[in-house]
Design a protein that fits this description.
two-stranded antiparallel sheet; mainly alpha
């Protein structure tokens, strides 16, 4: 087709991002609002990512802006529910994953009228290995035409197949429609965990188990909206993802972040059952509203969000049996007289109740007494450096509720990160890394130590390289190479020191 001026008219009503100019700039205003809110989350993001010194707010915010910039619908949802966008982005920091589309670990997507952080099975696998649960994970589908032989739970199965053959449709029950692929009927899936000591732990899931999990998921139950369910849109990815979610709790080790993100996927993401307890976002919003109302001597807000009654706690790919399904607890409804004296939201789940309303701190879901105790624990562990031990103890040894446990873990991890930051800054200023290396040697083996060693080594290498460039620049009086190298430095204290040295040399 030849070019003519008429073909340009199709683009007159759009800008480069696909937003219509006919809406009087409303979409652009929404985009700007979301972008400003994203920038305001930097401190919270850094605090949530204290355990991972290599996670970069700058990089992840660029990926997030790109997603929002190319999806007017997602932008609209973010404006309508900024809290969901905030929680999704901060969940990214907690998980340690990236929005980099090339790595296919996590995505910002619209779900249930909100912005949601969707984590792929690749992301879950990465979290499991990063958290030190295992060395490697293989999740593989098994079809009837595959050459498959199980060797039990302690040894990898023998499995050969054509990886390029068409898998066909996911047919878990007789009610499913679709064509059988080149590899024949689907039989099941297995997860092969390679542990750090070289052992293998293998778990198998049948079609029936997958069908039960899928059938109980909220996204699948809503027949009129089923086309938008991840089980329909990404069936084989959901099979792999569900396999990990159902088996990850069976391998030994501390799985705090993995468990947190799976809970987020199941409850807040609508992938699985939503129980009667309020989600973290809803609990925080209600509590803050109640506190603000009390400060204004106003009528406390009503908690309008209604959760469906429990029906077996079945998640996508994860079936959880309740200890006693017949025992249910109903929260008493306050009378008008009682409601006028409420000064804070009801304690969140698992909190200890002695019949008195405890004073709440400025942290949602955290009692004032618990916050004071957590502060003391953080001060104590700074001297002992027993961070891993204390993180494990706050989950079981104290009468903390779920929000308080999360706050305690976050505070301990932030304190550890700040200690590393302080010692590394001193090392850069002195050009002596002895103290920071001694600090790392005292830490127990684990994910934080491994990542910190790599990060310190990177900064030390940069410092040595910059010292060489600085000496050469002083001799040649040509600072162009040094200036270019300074701009590429990611560790701000090192960049500051070199910039000051460069300014002093230039002034002289």
């Amino acid at each position: 087709m030849g070019y003519n001026n008429k073909s340009r008219s199709a683009y007159k009503s759009q800008n480069n991002n696909g937003y219509s100019n006919n809406s009087n700039g409303n979409e652009v205003a929404q985009l700007n609002a979301v972008t400003r809110h994203l920038v305001s989350l930097e401190n919270d993001f850094v605090a949530a990512a204290t355990w991972n010194p290599t996670l970069s707010f700058a990089k992840e915010s660029v990926f997030a802006k790109h997603v929002i910039n190319n999806s007017p619908y997602l932008t609209k949802l973010a404006v309508q529910n900024l809290k969901s966008f905030e929680v999704a982005f901060l969940q990214l920091a907690t998980s340690g994953l990236t929005l980099d589309p090339a790595q296919k670990m996590a995505y910002l997507v619209p779900r249930m009228g909100r912005v949601f952080l969707d984590v792929s099975y690749i992301g879950l696998s990465r979290m499991a290995t990063d958290e030190g649960l295992c060395e490697d994970i293989v999740v593989e589908l098994v079809f009837e035409k595959d050459d498959f032989k199980s060797n039990g739970r302690r040894q990898s199965p023998e499995h050969s197949f054509d990886p390029f053959a068409d898998k066909g449709a996911l047919l878990l029950t007789t009610a499913d429609n679709g064509d059988v692929g080149d590899r024949g009927n689907f039989r099941g899936v297995y997860v092969d965990y390679q542990m750090k000591d070289g052992r293998n732990l293998v778990y198998f899931l049948t079609k029936a188990e997958l069908a039960s999990a899928r059938g109980a998921s909220e996204s699948w139950k809503k027949v009129e909206e089923r086309d938008m369910s991840p089980w329909v849109r990404f069936p084989w990815a959901m099979v792999r993802k569900s396999a990990i979610k159902q088996t990850i709790h069976q391998i030994p080790g501390n799985r705090t972040r993995v468990a947190t993100i799976i809970d987020y996927l199941n409850k807040d993401g609508g992938e699985g059952f939503r129980d009667v307890n309020a989600t973290p976002v809803q609990a925080a919003e209600f509590e803050m509203s109640a506190r603000h109302a009390a400060q204004r001597h106003d009528v406390p807000p009503k908690q309008t969000t209604t959760q469906p009654a429990p029906s077996g706690n079945v998640y996508d790919g994860e079936v959880v049996q309740e200890a006693n399904a017949t025992e249910t607890t109903k929260q008493p409804q306050p009378t008008k007289t009682e409601s006028s004296s409420i000064k804070s939201a009801p304690p969140v789940q698992n909190s200890v109740s002695d019949g008195k309303t405890e004073e709440m701190s400025d942290v949602p879901g955290v009692r004032q007494s618990a916050k004071r105790r957590i502060t003391k624990l953080v001060k104590r562990v700074i001297n002992t450096l027993a961070f891993e031990t204390m993180i494990a103890e706050v989950k079981t040894a104290f009468e903390f509720n779920d929000s308080e446990i999360q706050y305690a873990v976050r505070s301990l991890e932030e304190s550890r990160r700040n200690l590393l930051q302080s010692k590394l800054t001193d090392a850069v200023n002195k050009c002596d890394f002895t103290d920071v290396e001694s600090f790392l040697n005292k830490l127990p083996e684990g994910e934080f130590k491994q990542k910190s060693n790599a990060f310190v080594h990177e900064v030390q290498t940069q410092t040595d390289e910059m010292r060489t460039l600085y000496d050469e620049a002083m001799k040649s009086k040509n600072f162009s190479a040094l200036d270019a190298a300074i701009e590429k430095i990611s560790f701000k204290p090192l960049k500051t020191v070199l910039s000051e040295m460069r300014s002093s040399a230039k002034a002289a």
